[in-house]
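Format notes (please read before filing issues)

Several people have asked whether sequences and structure tokens are stored in separate files. They are not. Every record keeps both together, in the order shown below: the sequence lines, then the token lines. Line labels are part of the format and must not be stripped during preprocessing.
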Amino acid sequence: MKQTQPLRMNYEFSRVYRQGRFISDRHVVLHYLRRGGQKNRLGITASRKVNSSVQRNRLKRLLRESYRQLEDQTVPGYDIILVARQTADEPNLHTILPEVQRLVRRAGLSSKRKQEPTDASDGCGLSR
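Then the structure lines:
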């Protein structure tokens, strides 16, 4: 398992927001910036439009867990910020995890490749 370091300082978040790129989906916005290095740095926030602190903290826990499950599939060397959005429905891990996975793939941060066939045949049924 990779060790992702946290983004903690305001200037680190600001740099990713200013210089980086972003991709959004229904419940999550992914901001990312290439910085080099061996590890990713992760920041998790929730929009202030999410009314109660209980909801904000729950969404942040869901984002943290979904990234933890995808951590081994991400390319190292990026600063990543996941932002939870306010929506009408109450998201759970089963809705957040595929969204984060889709965003990571669309951003090009996924190192997971399709498995190649293990046999040497070309698929036409003829042997050489």
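For reference, the curators noted about this record: Residues 114-128 have pLDDT under 50 and may be disordered. The longest strand covers residues 28-34.
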